Every structure is written in structure tokens, then in C-alpha cells.
Amino acid sequence: MFNMLKKLFERIKASVCNKKGNEIVAIALILLFIILAAAPYIRNLGQTTSTGISNLNSQMQQVLNGQ
Predict the structure, then answer these.
(1) pTM metric for this prediction
(2) DSSP H helical segments within the chain, as ranges?
(3) Rounded to whole angstroms, how far apart are CA atoms 1 and 30?
(4) 3-class SS of residue 65
């Protein structure tokens, strides 16, 4: 287990020291921040869409049943 962690740390260290690795890490962190910042809004949008579809479904059932 310790050996695995040591290898993982060495890989992370090598990628951070690498200039190309720094760019990749920076882009990954920016994407992660955007995803985490937008997650509540996306969840609310999904809930709103779900509620709208449920209401439309209920109305369509009433129209089709002649109520």
C-alpha cells in the first residue's frame, strides 16, 4: 500500500514539475471548479425540467381522457 502511494506521489510530482503537466493540471482544476460551481444550477434546471414534464404529462392525460 505504501509503495503504491509512493509511486502515485512520484507520478504527481513528475507531472507537476513538467511544464506540459502544469498546463494539464491547471486546465483540470479550472474545469473542476466550473463543474462544482455550476452543479447547483444544473441540478435546479433538471428539477425544473422534470416538474415541467410531469405537469405536461398530467395535462395531456386529462385532455386525452376528455376530462
Answers:
(1) 0.45
(2) 2-17, 19-64
(3) 30
(4) coil
Written as tens digits, the pLDDT of the chain (67 aa) is 667 777 777 777 776 665 666 778 888 888 888 888 888 888 888 889 999 999 999 999 999 988 7
Grid coordinates belonging to 57: 404529462
Tell the residue number behind the cell numbers 414534464, with chain if given. 53
Cα 67 to the center of its chain, rounded Å: 42
Q: How far apart are CA 4 and CA 38, in angstroms?
A: 34
Q: Are 12 and 5 in contact (CB under 8 A)?
A: no
Taking CA 28 as the corner, what is the angle to CA 13 and CA 36, rounded to the nearest 5 degrees? 125
